[in-house]
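INFO  loader      accepted 1 record
INFO  loader      residues=464
INFO  predictor   begin
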Amino acid sequence: MAESPVAVFDRLVRQDAPESTPVLFDTACVLGGSVAGLLAARVLADYAREVLVIERDETNVTGRPRPGVPHDRQAHALLPGGLALMERWLPGITGEMRDDGGVLVTADAMDLIVDGVEQLRTGDAHTLLCSRPFLESALRRRVLALPNVSAITAEVTGLVYRDDAVSSVRYMEEGDAEDILPVDFVVDAMGRSSSLSDWLDEAGYSRPHQQRLQTGIHYATVVFGGDGTDRDRRFTALQYPRFAGPGGLAAGLVVPIENDQWMISLLVYGGNKPPGSVEEFRALCDKLPAPFGRAAGGVVVRDVLRYRQATSRRRDFVGLRRFPARLVSVGDAAVSLNAKYAQGVSSAALHAACLSDYLADAPDPALPADRFFASQKVATDAVWVPSADADAVRADILQAIEVSDELQRQRAATEQLMRAALTDATVAEAHRAVRFMFAHPDTLADPALLERAAAVNQGAGSPS
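INFO  predictor   done
INFO  writer      dumping tokens
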């Protein structure tokens, strides 16, 4: 009998790095050196004699932003589930990032406020807070320190196929002619603008189906300096599910990051625009809970930076009529999520878990990676479906769209859980496990949990 999505997800998030592995490939190649590509390279290092990462941006070992990640100067969060997976493959990296200035917090130092109501704190999971360039730098140092992993700065221009399998990668270093690298396995980690679909189409293979969901989200982010005396390094998140915050605010984040700095991000949707100047930014922060105003009172380290994400996207590789062997796709190349939900980095770690799970069974190199894509679909659904439904709710509210009775019941159940999570520890822990990517969203459909949430919201108190 096939595994349920809950069982697959549970196995992925709890897997350990293998103690011994067979050498499956002479040369494996990762196209893209962002978080997803680096984690894929770490997994491949267990199964290949040589792993080459090809990244078009200059190798980032100093924490500088990269042109290929235009949103990397906005607020990011490494959720506990993603952090736990990284720690399994790169033991000690959490402590290294903390020692270098990253901020490691537990639930006691995380404040989530929904429509003005502070959510109950539960559990002891750790979250690492830092800037995206800081995180990438730490990962790159550790992964490239492995003896069989290296990187070059170049642009990938295409793939070569033989016997319905990828056999070579074409790439071009700056100022040089095109080179061809024979490979035994390829990971596409080229991000949401990946050219893989076009390359497959041109070669006569099936093009993965792409789904787009309008988000229309706008960010504004400012980095402020601390005064060196504030030791209460807390993370604060605001959510206004119906976008009723000041200035049409949908969400806001106060994130303590490296170098005793605070990163504040304010998010709006649709026709609303985030603040464009520091003065406007501070004025809006003063209307929000106290942590926003306090952090925004520091010295401006980096001025207002805006970013707009028009759509979320996913590419579905399951059930394609014809697909080459020795090829997979990970990270934003497979699913690019609404960054409001802070799932992207941890989703990349889940894709690495799918790759490790797939390679552990020594798959037939002459066959497409169907089993990888099947488990990746479970991981993708787990992050896509909840965020896509939340975005659909937003669209329905803004456009006054009527929805079916069944969808109304589903959304009512979700609202029951969210309301109960504000006051009931059992519901809050179940809800937090899903949000932190320790558990599959289907675990929230447990009838006993839904009954408990309804009882709590009706004022009956917590059931025994």
